[in-house]
UniProtKB/TrEMBL annotation:
InterPro entries: Helicase_C-like (IPR001650), P-loop_NTPase (IPR027417), SNF2/RAD54-like_C (IPR049730), SNF2_RAD54_helicase_TF (IPR050628), Znf_C3HC4_RING-type (IPR018957), Znf_RING (IPR001841), Znf_RING/FYVE/PHD (IPR013083), Znf_RING_CS (IPR017907). GO terms for cellular component: nucleus. The keyword ATP-binding applies. Keywords: ATP-binding, Helicase, Hydrolase, Metal-binding, Nucleotide-binding, Zinc, Zinc-finger. This is Uncharacterized protein. Residues 203-245 form the RING-type domain. It holds the Pfam family zf-C3HC4. Residues 265-276 have a biased composition (Gly residues). It comes from Chlamydomonas leiostraca. Residues 297-461 form the Helicase C-terminal domain.
Length: 470
């Protein structure tokens, strides 16, 4: 029948599971074949439901069967969890902490979301969604930042002059102003005291100072992690530069060996002529320099972090935590707030000398008073053994679940003696929940696939984008 293809190519239609044998007839009138009493379990419960229903309904159940019943039997996989016994690694618990915005944040987010959705729908209506992938990706970044803290949108490095006016209006101004800002436009905008060192470039993807610069062939520079995420998620074969719209070509192998040093010339403007002096690390400007600190307001997420850290120390006074965010500015805000309430933090930054870094790690490992190590996902590639920490706080979800796993592995390794707690912070009803749902779906599809397509895990298809903005 039409349901399974049986009946074509010389196979009698009675082989179909749904063939309507007449009551009392035990054989097929056409081929005299006996009423079949067996069926292909694979086709019936796995292949066909997925083929005909995709990820929904029966298809989803089929994927779960595939993942939970079939794959474990045919693939010999050794994950960290399964290896825990062999390696004597302590157990790991992952907690999803879901909070709700307060009224002020909700207003801000709703305004931004409504505006973003309208923009998105315009692209869909004109059939130019994928051509505008750079802008859509930017809308997503802005929404993700707004969930962490509205300041990340209002006071971002590219939101020049947007601080005036109502907060929501300012966010919109920030959004528009953020588009196509050339790093050159911002160079020289710093205070006079900064003149001895080159200004840090601003990444057109995350709107923060560039970390681990990766220079595209068109001449624009981005954070290595940002451009990687941007290219990985793009469905179109040739991603385009978010700034100049030229085909984006970035050699990411350059600088991989020395993840801590900015690539030569990455600081943008060289400091005057000559070049006899060693180039200084680019001056970075914390988001804290752009906000009115006495009037500092926290966010639901930062308060959730504060609360979790408070509980952590109450349960175990010797416990320490690694706090991860994709956004450097979020770490700035977390640090400011935590130090306000007396929680001491250390932090690694791109321009730090080896000496300073070692002192930071030393302090975190041995100083009882230091509770938190703030880590930027962008600092990446730094091989650190931070087993002094037994808690991992993931402030925002990432597209690629593998990156989250890497963050957790920083402390879940040999030398770790305490049970590990991983807390993922999510604000309900926001883009973050959609990202998690999308991740779950992709992971399910991924784990049910032989010859796993790692790239598909990160890619955002047109359907995925619609789901995120629906
Ligand atoms: Zn059939
Ligand atoms: Zn037959
Ligand atoms: Zn960036
Ligand atoms: Zn460009």
């Amino acid at each position: 029948g039409a349901c399974c293809g049986v009946g074509e190519g010389g196979i009698c239609a009675c082989s179909c599971l749904d063939f309507p044998f007449k009551e009392g007839n035990s054989t097929c009138p056409k081929c005299n074949h006996a009423r079949i009493s067996h069926y292909c379990w694979w086709n019936r419960y796995v292949a066909n439901p997925i083929k005909f229903n995709g990820y929904t309904g029966r298809g989803r159940r089929a994927m779960l069967i595939l993942k939970n019943q079939i794959m474990p039997r045919i693939l010999l996989r050794r994950t960290k969890v399964q290896c825990a016994d062999d390696l004597a690694l302590p157990p790991r618990t992952v907690i999803l902490r879901r909070d709700a915005f307060d009224a002020r944040e909700a207003d801000f987010y709703e305004a931004l979301y409504t505006q973003s959705q309208a923009q998105f729908n315009t692209y869909v209506a004109s059939g130019v969604l994928l051509q505008n992938y750079a802008h859509v990706f930017d809308l997503l970044i802005r929404l993700r930042q707004a969930v962490d803290h509205p300041y990340l949108v209002v006071h971002s490095a590219t939101a020049t002059g947007a601080a005036a006016g109502a907060q929501a209006a300012a966010a919109m101004g920030g959004l528009d102003g953020a588009r196509n800002v050339q790093p050159e436009d911002l160079a020289g905008a710093g205070s006079p005291g900064c003149r001895d060192a080159p200004e840090a470039l601003v990444c057109a993807i995350c709107h923060e100072d560039v970390e681990q610069p990766a220079r595209a062939e068109c001449g624009h520079t981005f954070c290595r992690v940002c451009v990687l995420e941007y290219v990985e998620t793009a469905t179109t074969k040739q991603a385009r530069c978010p700034t100049c719209d030229k085909p984006l070509t970035v050699d990411l192998s350059a600088g991989e060996g020395s993840p801590d040093k900015p690539a030569p010339g990455a600081g943008g403007r060289a400091s005057g002529g000559g070049g006899a002096t060693a180039p200084k690390a680019p001056k970075k400007h914390s988001i804290l320099s752009r906000i009115n600190l006495p009037g500092f307001q926290s966010s639901t997420k930062i308060e959730a972090l504060r609360e979790e850290l408070h509980h952590m120390v109450a349960r175990d006074p010797s416990a320490k935590a690694l706090v991860f965010s994709q956004f450097t500015s979020m770490l700035d805000l977390c640090q400011h707030r935590l130090e306000q309430v007396g929680i001491r933090c250390v932090r690694l930054e791109g321009g730090m000398t080896l000496d300073v870094r070692e002192r930071m790690i030393e302090a975190f490992t041995h100083d009882q008073g230091v509770k938190v190590f703030l880590m930027s996902l962008k600092a990446g590639g730094v091989a650190l053994n931070l087993t002094a920490a037994s808690h991992v706080m993931l402030m925002d979800p990432w597209w690629n679940p593998a990156v989250e796993a890497q963050a957790q592995d920083r402390i879940h390794r040999l030398g770790q003696h305490k049970p590990i707690t991983v807390t993922r912070f999510v604000i309900g009803g926001t883009i973050e929940e959609r990202i998690l749902k999308l991740q779950e779906k992709k992971q399910l599809v991924f784990e049910g696939t032989v010859g796993r397509d790692v790239e598909a895990l990160a890619r955002l298809t047109e359907d995925d984008l619609r789901f995120l903005f629906s």
